[in-house]
Amino acid sequence: MRILELTEETKGNILENLLKRSPNSYGKFEASVQEIIETVRANRDAALFDYTARFDGATINKDNILVTEDEIKEAYDAVDPKLLEVIRKSLVNIRTYHEKQRQNSWFDSQDKGIILGQKVTALARVGVYVPGGKAVYPSSVLMNIVPAKVAGVDEIIMTTPPGKDGKVNPSTLVAAREAGADRIYKVGGAQAIAALAFGTESIPKVDKIVGPGNIYVALAKKAVFGYVSIDSIAGPSEILVLADETANPRYVAADLLSQAEHDEMASAILITTSRELAERVSEEAAKFTAQLSRKEIIQKSLDNYGYILIADNMEEAIAAVNEIASEHMEIVTKNPFEVMTKVRNAGAIFIGEYSSEPLGDYFAGPNHVLPTNGTAKFFSALSVDDFIKKSSIISYSREALEEVYKDIAQFAECEQLTAHANSVKVRFEDEN
């Protein structure tokens, strides 16, 4: 891994390089994505079947697009019982964590018959997109479905691309059933997003679409936002480790590579106050990469978006951390909890040398669907909040309105909205 001094210039160059990975930088694909969306919107199921044949090499039709109970049973038979046990353990942790995020409706009664409040309502139908392709992600199935279930969503529709044999990966199906998906459809890519956004003969329209995907999926979610809600437009995976001389270089190197293996555009950054640690982490990363199964992907990721930055002091390092605003952030320092209080921008923060990033990916409970490409400055992890909406409640008695209606009318007339003013004054016209 390249080792650089942390300066304003290097920080600026790195931020510019990282932003190239954003879905907002891939305008050349937008026309293709828009064409797919419009075709699905117009031709519905027929377009889905055609695109699935073209892009996935699978023959899908109205009779087999929906995953059947027999296919789910077959998946359970195919999955290692030990994996099933782990999925169930992970589910308990994820559900327990997200149950603490539940919000309740509230009402506040005041004098003279005023009631104000907030009504919390779960979304009626949500679409969960689960990618296929380079890797299989049953963990993403759990992370997207569980908060929706905890929120009380009525119906959860899942879509995922089939293999050329027309089947879905068994571990994906088992995870979906365990988490509580109501229906699973064999369709992927931008065409799946379009189907969820507008509906087809087979797939119902949803209120919100969540879940990660490739650049086509990300751009499709961006294009349909407004017709439906979306969670976010996710970019490639990221990890940033903040470490001092007390960190174990093998642990740090291993954690950096855990994200670099996702794809060639993943980012892995170490910011440290120790040159010795920087050099040892670089050496360990090279050793690990040579041994790992996805070494070609890891090496390209490190060559393009891997950095080790040496800071003069911890304050300078933390300032860079907040500027980069990484998806995953590990703190491996003498006083990690003290450092954590100074971190403003990160999707998830892992504290201490035994809080390895995969703990969050698979098992601890917090959601692993996180903001990327610097959006941790203003976005949060996927949560129960993403699957609810809030309605304001307002109730005034005649007595309560009588005290304030002239104020309201004056405000309305100031804005030259006389119908607004009339709406309150008419209730007291007999008195005047």
TrEMBL record:
Binding positions (substrate): 237, 259, 262, 328, 361, 415, 420
Residues where NAD(+) binds: 129, 191, 214
EC id: 1.1.1.23
CDD domains: Histidinol_dh
Keyword NAD found: yes
Bound cofactor: record note: Binds 1 zinc ion per subunit.
Tree of life domain: Bacteria
Cofactor(s) this protein cannot do without: Zn(2+)
Matching PROSITE patterns: HISOL_DEHYDROGENASE
Pathway listed: Amino-acid biosynthesis; L-histidine biosynthesis; L-histidine from 5-phospho-alpha-D-ribose 1-diphosphate: step 9/9
InterPro entries: Ald_DH/histidinol_DH, Histidinol_DH_CS, Histidinol_DH_monofunct, Hstdl_DH
Record-annotated active site: 327-328
Alphabetical keyword list: Amino-acid biosynthesis, Histidine biosynthesis, Metal-binding, NAD, Oxidoreductase, Zinc
GO molecular function: histidinol dehydrogenase activity
Catalysed reaction equations from the record: L-histidinol + 2 NAD(+) + H2O = L-histidine + 2 NADH + 3 H(+)
Binding site for Zn(2+): 259, 262, 361, 420
Function: Catalyzes the sequential NAD-dependent oxidations of L-histidinol to L-histidinaldehyde and then to L-histidine.
Recorded family membership: Belongs to the histidinol dehydrogenase family.
Record protein name field: Histidinol dehydrogenase
Gene name of the record: hisD
